[in-house]
Prior knowledge:
about 45% helix; alpha/beta; 12 strands; seven-stranded mixed beta sheet; 2 domains; 14 helices
Amino acid sequence: xxxxxxxxxxxxxxxxxxxxxxxxxxxxxxxxxxxxxxxxxxxxxxxxxxxxxxxxxxxxxxxxxxxxxxxxxxxxxxxxxxxxxxxxxxxxxxxxxxxxxxxxxxxxxxxxxxxxxxxxxxxxxxxxxxxxxxxxxxxxxxxxxxxxxxxxxxxxxxxxxxxxxxxxxxxxxxxxxxxxxxxxxxxxxxxxxxxxxxxxxxxxxxxxxxxxxxxxxxxxxxxxxxxxxxxxxxxxxxxxxxxxxxxxxxxxxxxxxxxxxxxxxxxxxxxxxxxxxxxxxxxxxxxxxxxxxxxxxxxxxxxxxxxxxxxxxxxxxxxxxxxxxxxxxxxxxxxxxxxxxxxxxxxxxxxxxxxxxxxxxxxxxxxxxxxxxxxxxxxxxxxxxxxxxxxxxxxxxxxxxxxxxxxxxxxxxxxxxx
Length: 418
Ligand code: GLU
């Protein structure tokens, strides 16, 4: 992330928070505590890489920001991406505190990451890097202290290496990390949980607009874990996904895209480009397509001052973290476009992580169906609470979600004398 984008994310976060702080009437001292990270740690991670016929020592930068643990252990993913930096990790750690509070699970918020392009390392190099990172982070971690999970650029395999490294000194401890492979104590349904949750919220929103899913024109930006599972679940529900994209560009078909065929095409060619039956489109033009629901499921700040005026969707569902900047958010509100905020829309991932942690503590795995059924019920209950709070207070969904979340964290702080 370049400096400019990093500032946009931090400004956006502060702006949304201050709007809720004001309506909650919080004093300056309370605001300061809620904004401060509990602990921010930076690690250097030296790894020897074999490049151009010789061994080269490379030192990567890793981060873990633990924002708040008033309501339970720190919880949040580890991101491997070339633009990871302390400011971004700090903003994302805060977002986890509000997300876990909003869905009312007994966790606080954290985030971590390594500034690296994981595609440039082979599997054994990634294993060495991950294990070295965990060796250094290990004193911060614990089943009741801090529990990492996957995020952008990491997956179940990386979580398995984390489990292995931690277990070397602590004995087999599956509850130390979530998003693990099912074979190592991971939960059924965790892999698709974020996208599945986004799809459940989308169906609910479409219903609220008196739209049948098959008539609802949906655009999804991003075809990684979240974008793919959102598209796949919506397709199974009978929805019409008219455009999809990856980093190379977008594909468009008004009649609806066959998501299974898109998956097979990507597995074969690596990209969505050239998907039979679709027209190519730029990523920018795709965001501006006329549609009912737009689901940004890739990067931060993709809807900003430059394109907010051109968005034609009626609803935006934030599957990615922080995809809409605060200036764009204001403009969208003025234009009557509803935004379902990230801390609600994409909370299915950490909710399934919570179920995984509970299963690990109880040493009792749940069935796939029961994980997804619980997840849908829980998320829709929270959606109902947020909509109700927004209506009662004549505010937007994001401010309502932040008010509920901040209120809970603040209450826990007061009760504990934290
Ligand atoms: N990385 C995901 C998020 O941003 C999941 C975090 C977790 O499961 O702890 O919500």
